[in-house]
């Protein structure tokens, strides 16, 4: 059996021995999990909106501001932001230099992504998960309360989401690395799970023009 000579040939060689469909099934399983988690926590936007509307109403209608709203708003937004990380990664939605990246071939894109995952992504997320676990453990031990406002709400449940979000990001990161290896071998990106996508205005105009 001839070993591949392309960049990252060792990784591509190991992938060659695997069955493609079971691997895709595994990738889509993790993608679905990340999607479900992202969709579940997206409902916090509704809760956050209701809290802000309630605060605006009571402040201006009854001249009765609620100090707890500030804590509640950043806790809700923080949880939403963290728990949407794996979902966004599974959809390829994180910010990247698309101006240059988009001109590269899929193999070059995958090779570059693979390098960046191991140089930046995994060290950063592992550090986040480890530090987040320490923060959450300490917060639970002392039953930490918010010090931003008087009689602030408990924030130790909030800190629990830091290592949890890190774990799901790590899991999705492993999937993305496998996806990169598959792309290097096959020359094209494996299909992702379909979900709600941004509207392509030009394609929409073309579609309407045909009707």
UniProtKB/TrEMBL annotation:
Q: Which residues cross the membrane?
A: 40-62, 74-93, 114-136, 156-175
Tell me where it mainly resides.
membrane
GO MF annotation terms: transmembrane transporter activity
- Report the domain of life of the source organism: Bacteria
Name the InterPro entries for this protein: DctQ, TRAP_DctQ
Instruction: Give UniProt keywords alphabetically.
Output: Cell inner membrane, Cell membrane, Membrane, Transmembrane, Transmembrane helix, Transport
Membrane topology recorded in Swiss-Prot or TrEMBL: Multi-pass membrane protein
A single Gene Ontology CC term = plasma membrane
Q: Where is the Tripartite ATP-independent periplasmic transporters DctQ component domain?
A: 48-180
* Location(s) in or outside the cell: Cell inner membrane
Q: How does it assemble?
A: The complex comprises the extracytoplasmic solute receptor protein and the two transmembrane proteins.
Q: Which family does it belong to?
A: Belongs to the TRAP transporter small permease family.
Function text: Part of the tripartite ATP-independent periplasmic (TRAP) transport system.
Protein name in the entry: TRAP transporter small permease protein
Question: What organism does this protein naturally occur in?
Answer: Limnobacter thiooxidans
Q: What is the lineage of its organism?
A: Bacteria, Pseudomonadati, Pseudomonadota, Betaproteobacteria, Burkholderiales
